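User
Class, as today's exercise, I want you to study this protein, comparing sequence with structure tokens, and judge whether sequence predicts the tokens.
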Amino acid sequence: MVPSWRFVVWSFVLGLMAMVGAVFLAHAGAEGVSEWGNTIAWIIGPFLCVYLITFLLLDPLLRQRQTATPGFARDIIVVALYIVAAVFVLGRVGDFSFGAFLGTGAIAAAILGLSLQQTLGNLFAGLSLYLSPAFQVGDWIELNGNIRISGTKETYIGQVEAITWRCVHLRNENGDTEVFPNLVVAQAVVTNLYAPSGLHRRTGRIVIEPSHDIHLALNKLAIALAGIPHLPSHPPEVVVTGFDLGGALLEMRWWALGFRNGKMAQYQAFRLAATCLPREGFPLMGPHGATTARIAPKPLDIQKIQNLLEKMELPTKYAAGLQGGISIRHAAPGEGIIRAGDPGESLFWILKGTLAKVQAESRMEPYSGIFWRSIVEFKPGDWFGEASLLTGAPRRSTVVAVTSCELAEIPKEAFEAVLKNDPNLLERLASLMEKRNPQPREASHPVSHLEQWRTKIMNWFGME
């Protein structure tokens, strides 16, 4: 094994010190040798003590404490220790008076301080950043204030790459690294955008054409935003916050885990808003008015309705009665279709595209954030949401479009007329629910699950 260069250097230094010590011991009685030996000992001893303190105490403590500037703090402390050691050696060897030096050098110190005002300002600003660490290397931070020479207030966002005794290195979203003096950072308002341990709300604003049914726009956009990965306790939401450009100002709100997670969600939120709202008949507003026209819905072909009924093992004769109540929905990649816990009263049949039932989970890779984990994948011909359609039960899961999709939505009203005209359909629907949601019968319960489904369907459609 080849010895490291540090081992070689220290072996040479220790060997040299041993040789010098041997020479002094051999000539201990000679005139002046003892005095020189004491002088060298007083010079080497304090500096050796500083090294031992740094190696045995300072470095282990700073490695255990996760500070923003461990390297910078070590340099400051080591320099201070060496200054103290130098003053001590000068006092012991050369009769140096530190008090006299301070008295006679006050004017020189003042001149030196004025000439190094900017440097000292950065030094002490770095000390303040160390003593109260609001961020550390790897965090994304936002600086607000006079951070440029122009003196105008601005905002800068970047990831902390390094912190030294003079400056802070920030890398922005474009991959460019900029260096800010510690004094500028200390005087700015600093917001730490990177906090993997906590959720932070992010917002985005858009303007749409005023409408009497704007509440539908809020609901449809909120469901579309359910495609943004989120925890069940913090779903995205949409509210009206004011008016702008002659239209209603909508604010989209979502919760993110970390800066990059929030940025990715922001891109997805605006893309979904620009896709969903015009498609659903709510034009976006610009300086010259509404930018899109309303889109008339297209009826579903009766042959496709018959195919769906065959898959659901229901008589195809009900296709004509259902056709008028079925609507076609389109979804963009990443758009939410239904959200767990929301009320619902419709079934979705997939005509084109792929969807997935998802569950949120927190991850640290590729960056700290909330991501979807796919549980079940739906293909063309599959359907979901029958429990809400037939019993009014809340949505049990969140379903998100994986690709561009086309779906047929069958609401409660479409089945209600058919069911009331033909009560025999009730048994088929109850059997469908039992088949899609199989559960073992409890011996202690006198009513079977099939009878329970029949009762829930009758109550929901008012057939008591």
